[in-house]
């Protein structure tokens, strides 16, 4: 049995315990080592003497938990202490007589004047009585005091408590007053608005009038200024044209005058530059004269070479003569 | 006077300063019927300027944003009516402008319920009485022109047209850009006089600027306007005369109008019949506009020729002692232009 329960230290140091559920064993208070036959004592829980049955409201069950709260422990200690003190207090008032000797017994004896039977049983008699059933109370007679004083009577006539006309006056006043107030407000408002609109309209008319006049004058101004501008530009155009024409005329006259003696000048310069020529003359110039000069050159060349030859001959001879002279020296 | 016993369609009203606060608290209730009643009471109360002041200063306007998105169309319509009441006063208008309630209001313009749309348009119309309001609505003008095209309900059309004319008085360009002139030209020949009047007023606002004049001439609106000059209602006549007055300032306008032979009609309007006193008041605008139109037409040579023949009439108008100052001045101006020689 003991092997069924497990208790061990957990990893973080706490202590765990676990065991299979089993019925509580019948053990004596002072434990003997558990025997193996405890299983046979296992019986129906319904017929177990240790199980509390019935009403448990007033039962003071000793908690089976082995651990008690420290406060619980304290409280129980206190209760025990109080009981002890009470008992001690009570014992104080009990007169202590020496104990009876051997073979004798203390007995309470009464030594008062009158004998009283001391017994536990109290003589009691039962007596009962019963009242009669209630009778109906008779009606009390009306208390009519004696007549004293004068008789006076009063009566409220038809229209005295409530006079419709008088009452309705105030209600009507309020109704009519409020309605008229409201309608007066509305009418005033409308009048105000109508007034506003009328002044607005009058103002608008005047404004339109003056605006039209202003616009017309503006337009007139614009037209006039445009017209003026147009005329001015037209005039400018005219002036420009005139100036142009005058310039053209002047240019024409000048050119005419400038070009008047153009012809003779041209012809003279052309003639001067030799653009007008006689072909025969030209031909003679271009063909004949070169040939002539070249022929002349040729003949002159001949003469020249002849002279050169002669010169060399002379030179040779002179040289020979000189050598010959030197030889003879 | 709103007590639930006397009038089951109104919520009970607390006293004094708690009035507005308590009604707005009731607006937060999830139950639709109580919201409607609270709104009805608020509408009644808003006729008093002091209550408007309380509403605006207590910052309750932001709570209306939630109510705008309510599913019940009558609640939405009532909220618009409440805003309509608020805008009768300048504080209300300014508060509405500075709060962020305008975008939900614009969304309501596309709402399915027509009473809702009508009330929303009423609010916008009132808002344009303030210059800053008209300024804020300028961005909305294209959308309004679009709505005008699709809208069939006459009342809403009238409101739309008057909103458009107020906005265009400030700045006509958005309306012109979204092709407003042709649309208004259509409306000019509508059967209902209110629509004609408002359309003519809007056209007058549009024709102030150059672009507008050009478009009016191009879209061939002038014949319709000349017809309107002979309409039964004086206001329509006055508005049509106003449009013509602006259009003939430009040269093309002058030419077209002279082609349409508009001078006799205008002279007819200017001529002094036996008018009664109160008719004189109403006719004042008409006479002034016609005089100005004649002045502008007199700048063209053909016009001047025609008018020189009719000069005595104008002179009579300008000399009359019991005449209004403005009319007299306008007539003298006309005479001066007619008798001008280069």
Automatic annotation (TrEMBL), chain A:
Keywords for this protein: Cell projection, Cilium, Coiled coil, Cytoplasm, Cytoskeleton, Flagellum, Phosphoprotein
Principal location listed in the UniProt entry: cytoplasm
Biased composition (Polar residues): 10-19
Region (Disordered): 1-44
Keyword Iron-sulfur: no
Biased segments, Basic and acidic residues type: 22-34
Top-level lineage group: Eukaryota
Coiled-coil boundaries: 217-245
Cellular component annotations (GO), alphabetically ordered: cilium
Subcellular location: Cytoplasm, Cytoskeleton, Flagellum axoneme
Family of the protein in this entry: Belongs to the flagellar radial spoke RSP3 family.
Protein name: Radial spoke head protein 3 homolog
Organism ancestry: Eukaryota, Metazoa, Chordata, Craniata, Vertebrata
Gene, per the UniProt record: rsph3
UniProtKB/TrEMBL annotation, chain B:
Phylogenetic placement of the source organism: Eukaryota, Metazoa, Chordata, Craniata, Vertebrata
Database matches in InterPro entries: ARM-like, ARM-type_fold, Armadillo, RSP14, TPR_DAAF5
Gene that encodes the chain: rsph14
SMART domains: ARM
PANTHER family for the chain: RADIAL SPOKE HEAD 14 HOMOLOG, RTDR1
Residue ranges constituting the Dynein axonemal assembly factor 5 TPR repeats domain according to the UniProt record: 93-245
Pfam name, any one: TPR_DNAAF5
Protein name: Radial spoke head 14 homolog
């Amino acid at each position: 049995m003991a092997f069924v329960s497990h208790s061990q230290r957990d990893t973080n140091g706490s202590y765990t315990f676990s065991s299979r559920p089993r019925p509580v064993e019948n053990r004596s208070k002072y434990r003997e080592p558990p025997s193996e036959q405890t299983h046979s004592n296992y019986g129906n829980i319904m017929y177990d003497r240790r199980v509390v049955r019935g009403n448990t409201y007033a039962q003071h069950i000793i908690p089976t938990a082995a651990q008690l709260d420290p406060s619980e422990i304290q409280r129980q200690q206190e209760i025990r202490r109080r009981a002890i003190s009470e008992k001690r207090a009570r014992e104080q008032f009990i007169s202590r007589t020496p104990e009876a000797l051997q073979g004798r017994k203390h007995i309470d004896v009464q030594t008062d004047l009158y004998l009283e039977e001391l017994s536990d049983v109290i003589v009691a008699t039962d007596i009962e009585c019963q009242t009669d059933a209630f009778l109906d109370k008779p009606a009390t007679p009306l208390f009519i005091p004696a007549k004293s004083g004068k008789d006076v009577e009063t009566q409220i006539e038809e229209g005295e408590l409530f006079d419709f006309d008088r009452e309705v006056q105030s209600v009507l006043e309020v109704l009519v007053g409020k309605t008229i107030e409201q309608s007066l407000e509305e009418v005033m408002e409308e009048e105000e608005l109508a007034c506003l609109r009328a002044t607005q309209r009058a103002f608008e008319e005047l404004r339109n009038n003056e605006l039209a006049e202003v616009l017309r004058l503006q337009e007139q101004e614009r037209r006039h200024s445009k017209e003026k501008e147009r005329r001015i530009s037209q005039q400018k155009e005219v002036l420009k044209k005139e100036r142009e024409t005058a310039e053209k005329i002047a240019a024409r006259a000048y050119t005419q005058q400038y070009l008047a003696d153009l012809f003779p000048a041209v012809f003279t310069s052309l003639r001067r530059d030799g653009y007008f020529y006689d072909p025969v003359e030209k031909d003679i110039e271009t063909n004949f004269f070169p040939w002539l000069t070249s022929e002349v050159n040729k003949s002159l060349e001949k003469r020249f070479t002849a002279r050169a030859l002669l010169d060399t001959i002379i030179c040779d001879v002179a040289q020979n003569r000189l050598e010959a002279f030197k030889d003879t020296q | 006077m709103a007590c639930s016993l006397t009038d089951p369609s109104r919520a009970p009203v607390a006293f004094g300063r708690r009035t507005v606060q308590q009604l707005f608290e009731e607006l937060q209730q999830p139950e639709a019927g109580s919201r409607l009643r609270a709104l009805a009471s608020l509408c009644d109360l808003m006729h008093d300027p002091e209550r408007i002041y309380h509403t605006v200063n207590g910052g309750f306007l932001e709570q209306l944003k939630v109510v705008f998105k309510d599913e019940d169309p009558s609640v939405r319509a009532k909220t618009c009516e409440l805003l309509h009441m608020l805008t009768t006063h300048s504080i209300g208008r300014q508060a509405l402008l500075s709060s962020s309630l305008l975008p939900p209001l614009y969304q309501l313009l596309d709402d399915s319920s027509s009473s809702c749309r009508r009330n929303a348009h009423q609010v916008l119309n009132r808002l344009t009485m303030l210059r800053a309001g008209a300024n804020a609505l300028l961005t909305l003008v294209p959308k309004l022109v679009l709505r005008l095209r699709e809208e069939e309900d006459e009342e809403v059309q009238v409101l739309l047209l008057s909103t458009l004319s107020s906005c265009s008085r400030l700045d006509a360009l958005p309306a012109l850009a979204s092709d407003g002139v042709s649309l208004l030209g259509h409306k000019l020949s509508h059967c209902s006089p209110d629509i004609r009047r408002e359309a003519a007023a809007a056209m007058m606002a549009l024709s102030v600027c150059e672009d507008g004049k050009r478009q009016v001439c191009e879209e061939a609106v002038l014949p319709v306007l000349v017809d309107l000059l002979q309409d039964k209602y004086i206001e329509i006549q006055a508005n049509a005369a106003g449009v013509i007055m602006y259009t003939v300032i430009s040269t093309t306008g002058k030419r077209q109008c002279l082609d349409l032979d508009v001078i006799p009609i205008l002279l007819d309007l200017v001529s002094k019949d036996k008018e009664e006193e109160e008719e004189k008041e109403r006719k004042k605008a008409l006479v002034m506009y016609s005089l100005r139109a004649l002045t502008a037409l007199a700048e063209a040579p053909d016009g001047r020729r025609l008018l020189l023949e009719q000069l005595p009439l104008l002179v009579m108008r300008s000399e009359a002692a019991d005449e209004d100052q403005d009319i007299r001045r306008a007539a003298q101006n006309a005479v001066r232009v007619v008798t001008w020689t280069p």
